[in-house]
Design a protein that fits this description.
It is a single chain. This protein is mainly alpha-helical. The chain is globular, with a radius of gyration of 14 Å. Helix 2 runs parallel beside helix 5 (55-68) and helix 2 (17-29) packs parallel to helix 8 (114-138). The protein has helices at 6-12, 17-29, 35-39, 45-51, 55-68, 79-94, 99-106, 114-138. The chain has one domain (2-138).
Length: 140
């Protein structure tokens, strides 16, 4: 499970939520990203450093882009449905995708954003699994 990998990045590596998600997903899904690719998501942590959209959600969306966009997002028939599913799932859990709304519900001073990252891992895995299943069913 993706959730089994994040702690080494979040706690041992001391990465923020977005960096943790992209690094764990790179390992789990064998995305083939380089360190420089993942560094780009550093500014997404803490809701783009401003409490805005949750960095874990933004990183999960980046993972979906790597998996489902060949060259341009508007040429992919997959990216909109998977991204929409991701955002809906977060809204179902937290009522928002904003870090400033999510943090009061899940932040713990001792464990930081552990709960949010675990939720992001679960949601991302579910969205990908359901989308892949749907694609397989369409190809039958």
């Amino acid at each position: 499970m993706l959730k089994d990998l994040y702690e080494k990045y979040y706690y041992e590596g001391n990465y923020n939520c977005a960096e943790t998600m992209i690094r764990a997903a790179d390992e789990y899904y064998h995305l083939g990203l380089h360190d420089r690719d993942m560094i780009m998501l550093g500014g997404y942590g803490a809701g783009i450093q401003t409490g805005n959209t949750c960095g874990a959600i933004l990183a999960a969306s980046a993972v979906l882009s790597v998996k489902y966009v060949e060259k341009k997002a508007h040429e992919s028939s997959d990216i909109k449905p998977v991204t929409t599913a991701l955002i809906r799932a977060f809204n179902n859990v937290y009522g928002s995708v904003m870090c400033r709304d999510i943090k009061p519900q899940s932040f713990d001073p001792e464990f930081r954003c552990k709960k949010t990252i675990e939720t992001a891992c679960d949601i991302l895995e579910t969205v990908i699994a359901e989308h892949e299943k749907s694609r397989q069913e369409q190809n039958m």
